[in-house]
Class I SAM-dependent methyltransferase
Amino acid sequence: MQARPIAGEPSPPPARLEWGTYPGIGPGAELLGRALRGRRILELGCGDGRNAAHLAGRHHAQVTAIDLIDLQTQHALEQYGLLPGLTFLTCDAMRYLRQTSTVFDIVYSIFGAVGLVDPRLLLTAIALRLRPHGILAFSIPHPQRAGTAAASGAQPRHSPLHLPDGSRRLVARWELDAAGWRRALAQADMRITAATELGHPGRDRPTALVITARRN
Ligand SMILES: C[S@@+](CC[C@H](N)C(=O)[O-])C[C@H]1O[C@@H](n2cnc3c(N)ncnc32)[C@H](O)[C@@H]1O
């Protein structure tokens, strides 16, 4: 499951961590805490690895970044595989959380596994691998971005996920609003600390919801 670095010069890590799809909008890595050097951080659904590279390369955190799709971790490795403190793994989030013995200071997901896996299962699995008072932060597409109501806790919606090869896959999404995430987090021994809506120039409605929480 561990993807191997490819020889060559790593790309420079991005200057900013982005929680939304539009760069430069909203908070950056400070949502994860001010002092990230040496922190054990897990990203669930890292895609091309740019945000994990930011945390390892610019903040000197110890980052494990996983993604279900091999194409994604291979692309991440080509870009950032030789950065110190950064490990890419091809693995399903639930599978990884159930088999690892590592306790993390911070877990995060940016349009990644949180929201794409049943929160009743995933949040509990995350809490078990977070240290007490450790941080969970995640962004999801805003549940009201298209004028629709938020989903209930149990029922996902189905919508397309765009893959790097240009294909699309229909996936289940749990698009709760902040109150829904508050309840789901509380059931998993975590408490919500902030909910931030991100906008997009030219759009009336918010496009992303960023939630931060702490383990009790
Ligand atoms: C929309 S992309 C976002 C990627 C990246 N976080 C970013 O902001 O560019 C969602 C990613 O989550 C990954 N993913 C979805 N479900 C997952 C799961 N259960 N375990 C691990 N990764 C998952 C997908 O393979 C995909 O690369």
Remarks:
- The CA atoms of residues 10 and 155 lie 42 Å apart.
